[in-house]
Amino acid sequence: MCLAIPGRGEEITSDGVIKIGRVNFGGVVKRVCLDYVPEIAVGDYAIVHVGFAISVIDEKTAQETLETFRAMGVLEEELATEEVVFARAAVAPQSPCPDGSCSPAEKKEEPVS
To answer: Could you give the CA distance from residue 7 to residue 46 in angstroms, rounded to a whole number?
Structure first.
């Protein structure tokens, strides 16, 4: 799943070419590209999708959205670090046909007698 998540801008800088910010997503802070929202200021909330702020929103909407995502249990998954994502993948059940090339009959595992 890949959600657009609201976060609060804590710092705005530039690397000389790109406007970058530190954005707080309910306690998790990540670096985000802010080029698509030139009007953003420190303290503003933005919707962020795959590392890019795409829209500035009001605080009430941002907090309601964060709470909804928490209640759904998806916020933790979306904001996980790379290490956590790899650790989860390592213990997840593996498909015998990850590319979907198996026929439905091949996908079923035969019981061991």
So the answer is: 6
